[in-house]
Design brief:
The protein has about 300 residues and is an all-alpha fold. It has one domain. It is about 80% helix and about 0% strand. The chain has 14 helices and no strands. Helix 9 runs parallel beside helix 12, helix 12 runs antiparallel to helix 14 and helix 13 runs parallel beside helix 14. The longest helix has about 35 residues. It starts with a helix and ends with a helix.
Length: about 300
Amino acid sequence: MRTLAVTAATLWLLLGRVLAHGSSPIERSIPWTLDPWIVTPLAIFGALYFAGTLALSCRSGRGRARNGQPRHWNVAFCCAGWLSLLGSLVSPLHSLGEQLFTFHMIEHEIIMAVSAPLLVLANPVGTLLWSLPRSLRVFVGRAMRHASITKCWNWMTEGTHATIIHGIAIWAWHWPVLFDAAILDIAIHRLQHLSFFLSAVLFWWSVFRRSEAGAAAWHVFITMMHTSVLGALMALAPRVLYGAQTATSSAWGLTPLEDQQLAGIVMWVPAGTVYAGDVLALVAIWIKRAGTRTRDVDVANAT
């Protein structure tokens, strides 16, 4: 907890230094990102989810599909996940992340450790289907249940497979050559964010939807450990590894090495703390369920 507090204080001081540089030509305007490849999918998802929620609510109101109405928690999780994606990919945070490695890392952690698990918890697929016309809804539903699609999805969301896929995406994109390429080429940058998000969805689906609590805790622990190692390597590196990403750091009052070190700390400490909290919650659920099963067995034996 003390380490997390120190990290938060450091990031707060960094933000103060950034905002204090009013003379910087970069700082005068930090625009929202209106990239159609980002805004359009988010807008379509939001519109379809809203339409699906209305459709299910109307059916429930007429008493024809009351059980199909999304639970309030599901809607809340979906809205929070959608808004967090909007905040990380469209708000000035995205533009700022192109200038400072530290804020770019914050953006990535929001996508992988906040947006993805919230959307998985929301499980919005059924609601999205209800936004479609009946014929299209039936067609898409049957296609999703096709044996090959189901087999592929089950393989990718199996705990070990999903953890490895997500880990490969994280480590591959943090190879300095690829990371800098994403800064210099917008198409590669889009692919990077898509890879982070989709692999994170697979990972969190395996955690929340496929694995027992004990196994899920183990996979989250493994992810916490290897991402912490990666963050530590960046934070403790004696030289700049990401030249393109840190090229404009000095305009914000940071040296390139300081920017890289702070980015590594973001992955190492705050993100690691989020994963650690998930591990503890999953272990608690595992212990509680094990205790319940033990009591049920004892009661059955007693009778």
